Amino acid sequence: MITIENQYLQAVIDTHGAQLTHLYHKAAGFDYLWNNPAWNKHAPVLFPAIGRSNMDQYQLNGHTYSMPQHGFIADQDFQIVAQTKHAVSLRAQATAATRKMFPFDFALELTFTLTSLGLSLTFAVTNNSQETMPFSLGSHPAFNVPLISGADFTDYYLEFSGDFELPLENFEIVKTPAPYRTGKTETFARSQKITLNHDLFAKGLRIIANSQIKQVKLASATTNHQVIVNLGDFANVCLWTKEDKELPFLCIEPFNGLPDVLGEPVDWQKKQANLQLAANKTQLFQYELLLK
Q1: Which residues contact 169 (CB under 8 A, 6 or more apart)?
Q2: Closest Cα partner for 236 from 259, 213, 216, 218?
Q3: Tens digits of per-residue pLDDT, 150-200?
Q4: In 3-state terms, what secondary structure has residue 288?
Q5: CB-neighbour burial class of residue 172 (10 A; exposed 0-12, middle 13-18, buried 19+)
Q6: Which helix (H) or strand (E) holds 199?
Q7: pTM (2 decimals)?
Q8: H or E segment to which residue 289 belongs
Q9: Are the beta carbons of 144 and 31 closer than 8 angstroms?
Q10: In 65-92, which positions are buried (b, 16+ CB within 10 angstroms) versus exposed (e)?
């Protein structure tokens, strides 16, 4: 485990999967992140896939490859590239095992930087191969709701900001029991501000389909503490909590990429929302957690 901190915040990161595991508000003495065995993750990184692939497979250049849910990067060990008191950079790269699933010489470097306003996360994806590399990239942070004791899940609300039109739409999901898209959208909310309740997630994850959403705020009238997820270079946001249990957490997940539409394995060169990185190029993606 690696610890970085500044005057206001302390973050703990696991080098296995480069997963943020704790994010403490030092003065108020609470952790923004979920830590409970009822869902035994905290903020996994999703690469090179988001969601479940049909038959746990995909197509590329006439070949079929296996791909686990959300990709494989969460199971890889990262190496420290650089570290200061308030920041750390971690790097993972292709191995013989990953090439069997994803035939590219990739590197993924994550930089966590604490600021006076919160935590910045920067993802540098490098394609060292000689052909274009298709991929998806996401982050899956789970926030305690309530952030501090003395309130309930339903005392909190989400507020969406950006240059988008209402209503808010989400990609319709069918569960088999794994969640897949149907290829359709449905109305999620008719206003930018939504009071939380677990019934919102009875169907499972909600990937917002509206473009140009810039921020999602998690807040409550019961406290001044809040989380704003500034999506930065990420095109979509996914909202999720356990649909079969009323647990006090909510994931607000920046996505570049989407789960499969239910059916046959998909050609990743043609898959909707997949990113395409040219040979011998690096692309940066950044988002921020603004914390009070």
Answers
A1: 185, 186, 187, 188, 208, 209, 210
A2: 213
A3: 899 999 999 999 999 999 999 999 988 889 999 999 999 999 999 999 999
A4: strand
A5: middle
A6: none
A7: 0.96
A8: strand 281-291
A9: yes
A10: bebebbbbbbebebeeeeeeebbbbbbb
